[in-house]
Amino acid sequence: MSGSYLLRWDKMKNTTNQKGQAPNLCKHSSGQALLIVVLVMAVALTIGLAVVSRSITDIKISRQEEESSRVFSVAEAGIEEALKLGSGTSGTIGEGEALIGYTVSETGQGGGTEFVFPAINAGDTQTVWLVEHDDGNLTETGKYAGTTIDLYWGNESQAADQATTPALEATVIYKDGSNYKIKRGAYDPYDGVDSSRNANGFDDADSAGGYSVGVKTFQFRKTGFTLPALPLIPYALRLKLIYNNDQAQILGIAGTSNFPSQGKCYESTASLSTSGITRKVQQCQFHKTPPGIFDYVLFSEGGLTK
Question: CA 59, CA 289: separation in Å to the nearest integer?
């Protein structure tokens, strides 16, 4: 009996800590569980904050896109109003925080000694008016006073020996008494081996390049295109590129005196004051011109035959 008792006493002694106290297993387990809970909560909080932040960002972006679309629509509405009035204008659309203001400025086209057109394809016709417009009607007051015009065309560095090297046809519509007539000239800078192209009967054009008009630099030019002299009255100069197919080429003119007005450009600026979002729209409206076929209606002095 005593030996058995001593054995049990030894085992109990072996399970005590250094201070002579038995370990508390429940306390250690609860500490580990608390640490795990804290880690899980931290991860969950991080994920939740990320989701909330992403949602807030998406909502903000969506709102900005919606506001930007509304501001752009107001800018377009300003352009439409200006085209309807034929002058610059301003106004507001909406109310409260959704109030959007717009201002449309007007810039005259022409009125100087140089004019540059947008790039055009082969067969397209651009018109330079040599008389003024008065409420849509042509008037001989304020007409172009020069007797010659320099013609420029072709993108910078355009080669002169390609099949798509552009040639230029210039047609002047002028008034002779009570009759309207035309004068034509055709100019080709081509310097290739195509025999049919070389035999087209066009006059030569300068092709050295580096010819500046306005903010554009042209590759080809023909200087001194002569207009009909007084008492003949030139009304319009029609310019058409040939051979360049669907390759768009720039086109410009320079004169010895100011050209009449060629139209107007409008720039509409709309902004939403609460967010500072601003959008701009530009639209140019040149004076109306007859279609390209009109030039050939005036071709013959005799009768037309089928």
Answer: 49
- Res. 122: pLDDT tops 90: no
For the chain, the residue count is: 306
pLDDT of 3 over the 50 cut: no
Site of tokens 């909560």: 41
Of the listed ranges 37-46, 74-83, 141-150, 196-205, the one predicted with least confidence: 37-46
Q: Is there a contact between 218 and 211 (Cβ–Cβ < 8 Å)?
A: yes
Question: Mind giving me the DSSP string for 37-103?
Answer: HHHHHHHHHHHHHHHHHHHHHHHHHHHHHHHHHHHHHHHHHHHHHHHHHTS-EEEEES-GGG-EEEE
Question: Is domain 112-259 in CATH 2.30.30, yes or no?
Answer: no
CA-to-CA dists, residue 72 to 82, 164, 272, 281, 283, angstroms: 15, 39, 10, 8, 14
How far, rounded to the nearest angstrom, does the alpha carbon of residue 40 sit from its chain's CA centroid? Answer: 54
Strands 203-204 and 179-188: parallel
User: Does 9 score more than 60 pLDDT?
Assistant: no
Residue 170 vs residues 72, 82, 235, 251: alpha-carbon distances, Å: 40, 33, 13, 12
Q: 77 — phi, psi (to 5°)?
A: -65, -35
Domain residue extents for the chain? 112-259
By the 8 A CB rule, do 143 and 230 touch? no
